[in-house]
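pipeline stage [seq->struct] | target=GAF domain-containing protein | organism=Arthrobacter bambusae | residues=259
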Amino acid sequence: MIDPQWDAAPGASTAPARNRRQDPCITLQELVLDSSDVMEFLAALAGVAAAVLSTITNTLSCGVTLRRRKRSPAAAGSDERGRVLEELQNDLHDGPSLTALRDDDVILVPDTGGENRWRDSMDALRRNGIRSILAVPLDLAGEAEAVMSLYSTKPLGFSGPDITAAEAFADSAAKSLRLALRIAHLRHARNDLTAAMQSRSTIDTAVGIVMAQNRCSRDTAVKVLTRASNSRNVKLRDIAAQVIASVSGETDLAPYFDE
């Protein structure tokens, strides 16, 4: 954990004038409701972080990296620079942001010009005009891993109060991101269930048609469709849709599901 009493360079912000027009917690909650997916939320979160944590003398870019099981890392930024810098570290598999993520600890780079760690990342960050970095992990309670990175074009760009403010914001951001991830999971589960029920409806209709045409039992009709599916190497639902189309010309039998 970074010492909040870290001594900033002369002239660095110690009582930053931040955007306090609305409680960031409320803003983040609204973002969860307004975002159509997790990536949209990450970009919006980064934008709010940059706006809230920038000061009059130190305009920040913010990047957020999210890692989920069986998925490629997702990166978003408050602007093009923030996004590119996150993707750069992900591509290099190293950097202060990924170290903060792996170690679950705040990482401060006071001056990229004098930083000997992460040499490839530091070279790239300096080429992009970045002189100081603050990376804060987001506690997602095991659901995934995420880190919020703040990029400044000024050396010694983060004072003790700046770090404290970033950690407080990260705590609220983590709670909102956890909620966004759970909502996304529920959406996917609902979509999968709806697709399964639609597929079942199509198959049941086709079974009924085969029973009527062949005057056979349900079990026999199911076997007929299954054999056709296996012999043609076509999904059972698609075979069922073909049967329905051959009778009525209608394959879109999606039922109404009351949510």
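stage status: PASS
auto-comment: The first strand starts at residue 61 and ends at 67. The helical segments are 24-34, 38-53, 80-92, 96-103, 119-127, 160-214, 218-232, 236-248.
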